[in-house]
Amino acid sequence: MKNHDIQHLSKIDSISFRNDLISWFEKEQRDLPWRKDQDPYKVWVSEIMLQQTRVETVIPYFNRFIDWFPTLEEFAEADEERILKAWEGLGYYSRVRNLHSAVKEVQETYNGVVPDTPAEISKLKGVGPYTAGAILSIAYGKAEPAVDGNVMRVLSRILLIKEDIAKPKTRKIFEDAIRELIDPAKPSFFNQALMELGALICTPGVPACLLCPVREHCFAFQEGVQAELPVKNQTRKSRDVQLVAAIITNEKDEFLIHKRAAKGLLANLWEFPNFEIHTQLLPKRSFFQEQFEADFGVKPSVGEFIAKIDHVFSHLVWNVDTFSGKLAPLIDKDVMESSKLRWVSEKEMEDYAFPVSHQKMFAAYKSGTKRLL
DNA sequence: GAGGCGTGGCA
DNA sequence: TTGCCAAGCCT
């Protein structure tokens, strides 16, 4: 660490800072389901769910997840369809596949006990620097930094750190600061308090400094520049993708669904057959039929237009022209298997994990069906 | 290091 | 409406 990176660090009374911060946390912390105990498995699950995801969104998912998989061992033995279903709608689905892989690793290598050293825990899939520090401090009481976006925002203000927090190497500056400031007696509360402060008081935009328990320690507040921090220079441009999809049924009122590839966007989730449109040469119905026949060897009939579904991802936007369609269930059984196609009843669809984009498509289909009755 | 990887809430 | 954000990690 270069000292000039954190010139205000040495001016902080770390004992007083810790006490003010932790006293506030002990009084004001939210009653959250993952704070009921310090089971390393539950702490781990909650930390993975909370990555880039709001607390209010996570709460019901966490409760259901622990209901379905109360212990690390039970989650390790779950099948992939079930774990994806548990994550359906949460986003960033590789999180749950990595968690599953890591939990199985803990079962096999560590006899079912989540490791408590930085070196071991960091080797687990999906456990990066933040999650490692969070589990080690919250579940095991180790004085390790857990630097997330909240911590960088809060500390950038308190210590007047103007490094760009969008740059990966900047995290180390904050980890070094935390190692100086962390309460060795209460590392769990210290780390959680910093994040709680970021969530409740030291928010992005205009923070509630008048309610802040540590504003006397805050150099940004002293200089009135809290709204200018943190510095974050990253704009990720998203790209538009045109798709044509069809909700295809057979004479038994079953739906044709397809399992997505094991890598990439929405990996291993199920979907209604769809294709990306690169050029606009053919009418969309014809394009869909040709692509479908090329991939699966039979040609469906494509019926009425259902809806144009717009769905925004973090890095791209889907624009999906959705049609209804009909197909006799005559696709060869081996082709169905190798093409990862399946006919399922509406009831059976409940057991499959679909991305939100396809839930929107199905909702539009259902409302269209209802209109026809 | 930069970009892939979801979703919903909010100004 | 549009863009930005919210307890990151992987490649």
From TrEMBL:
Transcription regulation as UniProt keyword: no
Cross-referenced SUPFAM superfamilies: DNA-glycosylase, Nudix
Biological process terms in GO annotation: base-excision repair; mismatch repair
Co-factor(s): [4Fe-4S] cluster
Keywords: 4Fe-4S, DNA damage, DNA repair, DNA-binding, Glycosidase, Hydrolase, Iron, Iron-sulfur, Metal-binding
Residues of the signal peptide: none
Reaction catalyzed: Hydrolyzes free adenine bases from 7,8-dihydro-8-oxoguanine:adenine mismatched double-stranded DNA, leaving an apurinic site
Entry note: cofactor: Binds 1 [4Fe-4S] cluster.
Recorded family membership: Belongs to the Nth/MutY family.
Protein name: Adenine DNA glycosylase
Originating organism: Peribacillus cavernae
Species classification: Bacteria, Bacillati, Bacillota, Bacilli, Bacillales
Gene: mutY
